[in-house]
Amino acid sequence: MHDAPGSAATGAPTAAPEAADPADVAFAAELAGGAGELLLQIRAELGFGDARALKSAGDLRANDFLLGRVAAERPGDAVLSEEGKGEAGRVGTERLDADRVWIIDPLDGTREYSEEGRDDWAVHVALWQRGLGLTAAAVALPAQGVTLRTDRVYPVPAERPAKPRIAVSRTRPPAEAVAAEAALGAELVPMGSAGAKVMAVVAGTVDAYVHAGGQFEWDSAAPVAVALASGWHATRIDGAPLRYNESDPYLPDLLVCRPDLAEPLLAAVNGH
Ligand SMILES: Nc1ncnc2c1ncn2[C@@H]1O[C@H](COP(=O)(O)O)[C@@H](OP(=O)(O)O)[C@H]1O
Ligand SMILES: [Mg+2]
Questions:
Q1: Which CATH number belongs to the domain containing residue 83 in this structure?
Q2: Which residues make up the binding site for Mg(2+) (predicted)?
Q3: Which ligand is nearest to the Cα of residue 249, counting in written order?
């Protein structure tokens, strides 16, 4: 199974690369990178003594920064973010009728952000367009000093590893990944943040990311768009396409991997 960047017609959640406006990708990267700088500053200002205060300041200030920039520079667009998802208006229910929706996670891997020395946390900014799906996105990994984006290619390495490394949640590794570990002789690699895990796949640090048991659209939209744009596989763990800007943003499971690992991994996680 291979998920080349497709279109709504092929069931893939991303549009063909030529459907993206380069200005939107640049804007996504500037926003993710800018929020990342801010999050690094907040870490430096507050320190690690009060984890709860650090998490909450990071989340709120990054979210305010991102929503402020979208409102100022893309005033006609709607937003789906962890904050304000239930409200009416632009940052709320208006997104269901909108043609352009920014799907934002201001701080993914909040737990890891509050732990000194950890770099597995991220900022996600993705653009969804009606009839096209995800067209532009960026994922910043501020503590790793990189921002990955849909207009760059992160090539799939030529060789498939004999013992695949599968990234899983540090705190909630799913039974499906443990099943794949046994079936494929894989190695599980615990890591925080959905964005950091997907970016570890496209960087070749691991070969797959298996998640199940709960997540929301903002946790995966930007990382999945970046992965699909470079020809990696990204679907639900039953192989179905990931769909974004749905009325219920709950999107509980995810499989991202090199295309030639998709079939064996899907079989393993589904117990075939
Ligand atoms: N069972 C679950 N229910 C809801 N969200 C979950 C979840 N498991 C993981 N997530 C979310 O997915 C992101 C990555 O999690 P993990 O590091 O455990 O893999 C985190 O996002 P946030 O940090 O933005 O809250 C986390 O909250
Ligand atoms: Mg998140």
A1: 3.30.540.10
A2: 82, 105, 107-108, 219
A3: 1
pLDDT in tens, 213-241: 999 999 999 999 999 999 999 999 999 99
Q: Is the pTM of this model over 0.90?
A: yes
Same domain, 140 and 174: no
Q: Is 147 near ligand 1, meaning CB less than 6 Å away?
A: no
Domain extent, residue 111, equals 8-149
| Ligand 1 contact via 251 beta carbon (within 6 Å) | no
* Residue 8: predicted pLDDT: 37
Q: 12 falls in which pLDDT band (50, 70, 90)?
A: low
pLDDT value of position 181: 93
The answer as to whether 158 is a domain residue is no
**Tally of domains within the chain:** 2
The whole-number pLDDT of residue 5 equals: 41
> Which ligand is closest to the CA of 120, given by its number?
1
CATH number of the domain enclosing 211: 3.40.190.80
CA of 198 to the centre of ligand 1 (A): 13
> Do 237 and 113 fall within a single domain?
no
219 lines ligand 1 (CB under 6 A): yes
Same domain, 134 and 187: no
Does the Cβ of 125 fall within 6 Å of ligand 1? no
Tell me the per-residue pLDDT of 27-81, one tens digit each, with 9 for 90 and over: 999 999 999 999 999 999 999 999 999 999 999 999 999 999 999 999 999 999 9
Which residues lie closer than 8 Å to 50 by C-beta, 6 or more apart? Answer: none
Q: What is the mean pLDDT of the chain?
A: 92
